[in-house]
Amino acid sequence: MRLWRKWKVHRNSKRLASGDADERYQAALELLRVPDRRAVMSLIHALTDSKEIIRMMAAKTLGLIADLRATEPLVCALGDTWDVRCRAIVALGEIRDPKAIQPLVHILRTQPGLRELVIRSLTELEWSPDTPELRAVSAVARREYKQAASEGSVSFRPMIERYAVANLILYRHDFFVSHEEHVRELGVQNEIREVFGEVGRRASDQVLDLAIDPTFWAHREAVEVLATVTVGDDAVVKPLGEMLFSGDSSQELKGTIIEALEQLRHPDALPYLLKTAMTADYPLGKAAISAMVSIGRVAVDSLWTIVESPDLNPNLRDDALDALGDIGSEASVPRLIGILSQSATGYDPHHAAKALGKMGTRQAVEPLIAALSSSVYGLPRAAAEALGEIRDGRALLPLANYARSLKSEDGTSVAVDSMIMILESCMASINEEDLAAVSAMADIGWKETDWSNHVGQWSTRERSVDCSRIRQLAAQELARRTRKTAR
Length: 487
Fold this sequence. Notes:
By secondary structure, the chain is mainly α. It has helices at residues 2-15, 21-33, 40-46, 52-65, 71-76, 82-95, 101-110, 115-124, 132-141, 145-149, 156-171, 179-199, 204-211, 219-229, 237-243, 251-264, 270-279, 282-295, 300-307, 314-327, 333-340, 349-359, 365-371, 379-390, 396-405, 409-425, 432-439, 468-486; strands at residues 444-452, 457-465. The longest helix is centred in the middle third of the chain and has 21 residues, at 179-199.
């Protein structure tokens, strides 16, 4: 048996020098299955093979053999491709040669994506960090982020780099990420944000320096973290705002900056967000408008500037109208009603109706009722939906008349749903005549003609919307009032 093993190791060692890549691969695979010290020199030579997979297997096999002769060649392999490096790092930890400590420490300092792998090998080598920087980096590599933060500002950079590594793992599309890995990396990011949240503004200056440094590979993630540690801090608004218009800032970075300004919720960010909305492309402009909403009512004037810019992308102007509804400032109501009544041209009254519905203002009830008979496409439906959100009894009968006039399921269903919301929320304010009228409201039906591919001809079918809930609610309220009168 020993002779057979010796012969097989000798044979595979010679095959590693073959000119045939497939033969070298088979030899490396067999040596990996049965590692043997007699193959060390051939495996060391295989670390320079032209095929990456052979170099990977050679590095792994040398780690299993754990021969000190392999230390220096494996150290040289630390400059190879990612997969070879990973196997060389693990192998050096298995060999446990103190000569590998300094090269591994260098990787610990400089290559964030390999830190967790390196720290395991350094632990095998019984290495312990002797400076605050190395203690912080080592703690980050072990996922001990609170321990890292206890070392002070030297921990901020490695923690942000680990946060960035998690982003790379989560959002790259060139390799598969398992569910477990996905959950783990999200957990890493949450833990790092929590630690920075505890450190608070003490970290703001250093994190800001990293965020505005275009040479720092993870400065986009530094911007994300900055929003965590400086909520409400006006000192970081100007540097972040200026980065939005820097030639060094990518679209992705600008998007992250806008998200950070949204979290900061500081009024000083408004000029930067307004300029972005007015000059950037649609996705960034939309994000800037969303960030304005988070700042609140002080953003109303800026949003109206966007709405009243005729040369701007119409979709952005519509988004600004929607944002005015989200903020809900009463000062905007007259102007929105003006757009709704089409006294102001060049605007989309459909979005004005949506905004008034979100605000729930009763000033808009009569203009919205008038809009039910508008010829502007989509406006009557939007007005019906808005009236349902406002929940005012005056709209009940106009909505019933609007629903009866339609010949489409979508608009009719919206009107009926709005009537139900009004009946359920403000029944007592509805006059008796209106209740009596809707209590006898029949299901709304119509005939629909369309082309049938199945039979190859036009076909007609009957459609209807159920109004029984309206009849039920109105009848219950009328009965309640009758009982009350009888007493």
